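Changelog-adjacent note: as of this version, every example in the card shows the full chain rather than a window. The one below runs 251 residues end to end.
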Amino acid sequence: MVKKILVSQPKPSSEKSPYYDIARKYDVEIVFRPFIKVEAVSAKEFRAQHINLQDFTAVVFNSRHAVDNFFLMAKEMRVNISEDMKYFCVTEQVALYIQKYVQYRKRKVFFGATGKMIDVLPAMVKHKMERFFVPMSDVHNNEIADMMDSKGLRHTEGVMYRTVSNDFEENEPFDYDLVIFFSPTGVHSLLKNFPDFKEKYSARTAIGTFGIQTAKTAKESGLEIALEAPTPQYPSITAALSDYVKHANEA
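Full-length structure tokens:
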């Protein structure tokens, strides 16, 4: 029986979220609590990377966290971002988010249609004379750098923020029937907060994962996965969750 679910993401901003539909349909409580949080690196740490933001004429954003930390670091370091700066974004949502900091000008903002950075690559190639800066998390792969290298683009990556564990308070209850993770870091955070999770909680708390790497990390950590997405049957985590709760509560 599933009555209380922990979704390790921020609470949805829209009341039309499928999570709320699931809560109403199956009479379950869904709690939104991220297991991880993003922290900016200090100006001192950034300077140690020997990067001068004024050297660049274009920025590549793969998330809103990247947008926030780029502009906040520029402000902290008192660097004026040129009005001629071009922005290449993974999605339209990220592109529109730039308006929080600068005036949105379509001729200077580019984004892909599918949410994959490779779809922005043709726009970058059209502006191959630019000097690109890519704000990154401390945990990242070389996908963007390799992609840009393949087209001979001039680029520099810089760590501007880090992902850290969002620890539980000492007396904060952990009474969930199901916990859903969206990143390997979230899984690591769980085991940091509850080193005895497998012995103390796994018998009553099922695990759900979204993403190949998240599932891989959970399995390597000795956790048994009850629901997983995306799969051909369940392209979204909410589809997998709805089906899981339906069958668990029918048993």
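Structural remarks: The chain has a mean pLDDT of 92.
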